[in-house]
Amino acid sequence: MTPAARIAAAMELLDEIQASPKPADQISSLYFKSRRYIGSKDRRAVAETVWRVLRTKARIDWWLEALDFPADARARVLVDMIFQGITPEPDLFQGAHSARPPSQEERRLMEALRGKSPFHHAMPAWVKGEFPEWLTPRLTALWGERLAQEVAAMRDEAPLDLRVNTLKATRDEAHIALKKERIPSTPTDISPIGLRLANRVALVQVQAWRDGLIEVQDEGSQLVALLTDAQPGMAVADYCAGAGGKTLALAAAMQNKGRLVACDVAEWRVDKAQARLRRAGVHNVTRRVIDGESDKWIKRSAGSFDRVLVDAPCTGTGTWRRNPDAKWQLTEETVLELVSRQQAILTSAARLVKPGGRMIYATCSILPEENEEQVEKFLAAHPDFRVLPVPGLWGDLVGTACPVPGPYLRLSPYGHGTDGFFAAVLEKPSV
Ligand SMILES: C[S@@+](CC[C@H](N)C(=O)[O-])C[C@H]1O[C@@H](n2cnc3c(N)ncnc32)[C@H](O)[C@@H]1O
For S-adenosyl-L-methionine, which residues are the binding ones (predicted)? Predict the structure, then answer.
């Protein structure tokens, strides 16, 4: 592809992303799948532009509004070019598959921005921090003086974290296996089973991944799995298992011994777990599609699990580094709807816990109403459960220095270099 064709493709893909309610990564992978002629280097270059525009959209739109220019995909890419120091020479808009050359108006826009910093002192915090304006009161209450640093860390691209599958390798062995494939990695600071890659790689081409030695999993998500304390021989339910990200980690902690049930309401997600479980050499997992809170199996299985992990559906506000488009689609109504769904799920999952067992409630959200407030509401309605403060469990379950004061696990990109995660460990004491 010529640079001109890459610019045109970035504009086109961004247009498609903005016109669809689906996540940007889904639209992007469909876009490239239906254009197999686009080689991997070009794909990377186009995606880089598109993701950078999504990450800096509030800033770009602020400038467009300030200069009285309509904000669309094309204008956003043009502004991004200027901020990247690319001069829109005529040959960038010529030749096969190129975008049409800038109009006079567009040239004026680009001239007005040339040499300017993308940040302006008059930009409000939500524009500088790239988060939805309506979340300002909540995030200010949550982070106070740290707001600017916290949101800045959520703007950056996330690293690629791997969890070592301890059924097949130690962390050192996985590190060496990757090194042999010329893939440098470093041990994660907080999780004892994580490796962080310096550069992104296509894992399908990596032998260590094909052999099941490693899986993609953010360090924060690894820590949630470790806090679940799934042990060999236990009965463990992964209540919102999805495609099995945490199920795999639980099975490894159980050394393949005991009973691990991976539930979810979405059959297509549970189906996706199958190949991952096989690759990882996991064979103590039963996958179960449940029919929501009224599912009969849940009723029948009441009181029979030592550990129940509830990795609840949530706003995903802790994963904005990976899904920068998601924040612009989030609405207040969605938050309210999720909060009520989470409470129903917690109440339902709690039935599965044995006396003496534990329920671990987790989200990849930073919002207190999905986290601490949910736990408090649950405890008020279920006096038979109590909180086990995370710092008291950490030494035995994780073994590194505990990164939080407790009682809950609350992680953020700025504070811990992980995605934003929350977890609470709730015990149902034996009577
Ligand atoms: C955060 S995701 C789970 C991610 C998964 N645990 C992992 O680590 O890869 C939340 C999951 O909850 C599921 N879910 C939504 N409503 C549910 C319900 N009422 N009962 C059980 N699972 C539900 C969704 O289908 C989704 O897979």
Answer: 264, 291, 311
